[in-house]
Amino acid sequence: MTSSIHRCRMLGCASKFFTYETTKSVVVKSWTLGIINRTVQLLIIVYFVGWVFLHEKAYQLQDTAIESSVTTKVKGGGIYDDKVMDITDLMSPPEGTSVFCITTRLITTKRQFRGSCPYTKYSCNKTEDCMKYMSRSDNGIITGRCVECNSSSLCCEVRGWCPTEVSATDTRPIMEVENFTIFIKNSIRFPTFDFSKGNFLTNITEKYIQKCNFDMQDNIYCPIFKVRDVLHYANQNFSAIAQEGGVIGIKIGWLCDLDWSEEHCNPTYTFNRLDALSQRNNVSKGYNFRYAKYYTNENGTEYRSLFKVYAIRFDVLVHGQAGKFNLIPAIINFVAAFTSVGLGTVLCDIILLHFLKGSDQYKAKKFEQVTAITNTSCISKTNDGYQGSCQLLSVKQKKQEIH
Ligand SMILES: *[C@@H]1O[C@H](CO)[C@@H](O)[C@H](O)[C@H]1NC(C)=O
Predict the structure, then answer these.
(1) Taking the CA of residue 101 as centre, how many other CA atoms within 13 Å lie in the half-sphere pointing to its CB?
(2) Whole-model pTM?
(3) According to CATH, what is the number of the domain 26-55+327-366?
(4) I need a labelling partner for 223 at 20 to 30 A (CA). Which of 48, 203, 212, 237 fits?
(5) Cα distance between residue 166 and residue 107, in whole Å
(6) Ligand 1 within 6 A of CB of 79
């Protein structure tokens, strides 16, 4: 008796393992549910085909880690203070980097020597007035003494470069800067696909480049930009930005579908003002910086000319994305699309079990109640052999076994 139980237990477990389970379906013949189900399925298919596959190109492998190099060259000349200035005087840094400044306004303080002199910014009546400025960081060191500024007033003394910087604000901007041209050379590479290209497209000839200027209609690939046009496309007014300075972004975008030929991978140029804060806030408007040129006189004393420069800074920013068909994302998204079509059932189940008339009957059909069989012995009580009864059944079981 015991050995036979043991043997049949082994058999029972083996037969339990070598089975195939499949879900039982309940077919509901209801127009409402049928329409909802098909509509949801259709929406999901349309979404996947139209948006995920055709628009977002989910079958492609994407590369956003664009490698890029930018070199620039600016040309032009202007008049400042009755003196002619060329690009070497007006552009910094001279290397032609992707971030460069073109001077539009200059405030020059000539022949400054090291020493002590009155600082017109801080007026005073007595020494104590100047003591409170001593801890301030300023151009030079405040000595704390109250000295004669000019014939009528007193001001604090500073130890630094003298005379102190002139605070003239009425200098005229160099208007010729609007006609300056910026030449941009950009090479890019998408490392994943080992694809490289430059913004000098094959149809750009030497003759064309000598006379072309970028515009949004006919010359969208010309790599030479007039400052005025760049500001215009960035919705800026030249005279306003020339007065206070500012930062302008020249963005080069490379959106490439490499399933197509190389000619379809072309740059697009967009322009905008990057220091938007300067426009909205009156504190610290625009963009300026200082630099100096140093000289020595005959007896060896160093002196300098100080320049406060208002400039338009151009930042050339490159971004890009390339995609190419690849089996792995294609399969993953294809499977995701198929699985998602089944999502309609979730919604229909909720409606079926909670909102439809007679949902209790549907519930009963969907979830079958099977009472627990406590006796797990192989000796069948129902006389149908030990195939069916040699297992524990849970109280609420969704699956039915078909023999
Ligand atoms: C810029 O060039 C245009 C013609 O190309 C000229 O009419 C204009 O006066 C120039 N601007 C300045 C400030 O020189």
Answers:
(1) 21
(2) 0.76
(3) 1.10.287.940
(4) 237
(5) 8
(6) no
